[in-house]
Amino acid sequence: MDGKISQVSLVVTNKERSLTFFTEKAGFEKKTDLTGPGGYRYVTVGLKGHELELALFEVGSATDPTQKGWSKKWAPGKTPPIVLLVPDCRKTHKELSERGVEFPQPHEDHPWGTVATFKDLDGNHFSISQLRGGWAKT
Q1: Do residues 86 and 126 share a domain?
Q2: 59: buried, middle or exposed (CB in 10 Å: 19+, 13-18, 0-12)?
Q3: Domain limit, last residue, from 32, 48, 71
Q4: Is residue 33 part of a domain?
Q5: Alpha helices, DSSP H only, in 39-123?
Q6: Is residue 59 part of a domain?
Q7: Where are the alpha helices (H) located in the chain, listed in sequence order?
Q8: 92 and 58 in a common domain
């Protein structure tokens, strides 16, 4: 297959509330905000300068009958963390904490690097990770 991953769907309970959390507290930017003729609002957020986006999917908001069927078992906070590589984990942890982001797991050192895990308003987890010298992303 030739292509690239452009977005990951993130299940949330309130799209507007999640948009505010990601843009005002977690440091993401709004990438897309479109409302189609059926009334469904398509919103994505992502890190500045990066192409990968999180599509905010509000529980129960599907307007297409086929989508309602296959998405009915989706729930917020039920997936492994989304991992974000950062140059300085401690600094990022401090900045996000000061903005009110909750970290159920503060920064921890491991042989491979440093990691801290925060959660959004719906319990979805995100790990900010800093790799140590000698560990390379392949």
Answers
A1: yes
A2: middle
A3: 71
A4: yes
A5: 65-71, 89-98
A6: yes
A7: 15-20, 65-71, 89-98
A8: no
Burial class (CB in 10 A: 0-12, 13-18, 19+), 65: exposed
Total tally of structural domains belonging to the chain: 2
Q: Please, are residues 45 and 19 in contact by the beta-carbon 8 Å criterion?
A: yes
86 falls within a domain? yes
Look up residue 115 and give its amino acid: V
Domain housing 47: 7-71
Quote the pTM value.
Answer: 0.83
Full pLDDT tens readout for the chain, 138 residues: 777 889 999 999 999 999 999 999 999 999 999 987 778 889 999 999 999 999 999 887 766 666 666 677 788 988 889 999 999 999 999 999 999 999 998 789 988 889 999 999 999 999 999 988 755 555
Co-location of 88 and 67 in the same domain: no
48: alpha, beta or left, given left = phi > 0 and alpha = psi -120 to 50? beta
Q: Are 121 and 17 in contact (CB under 8 A)?
A: yes
Whether residue 1 is contained in a domain is answered as no
CA atoms within 13 Å, Cβ hemisphere of 27 = 19
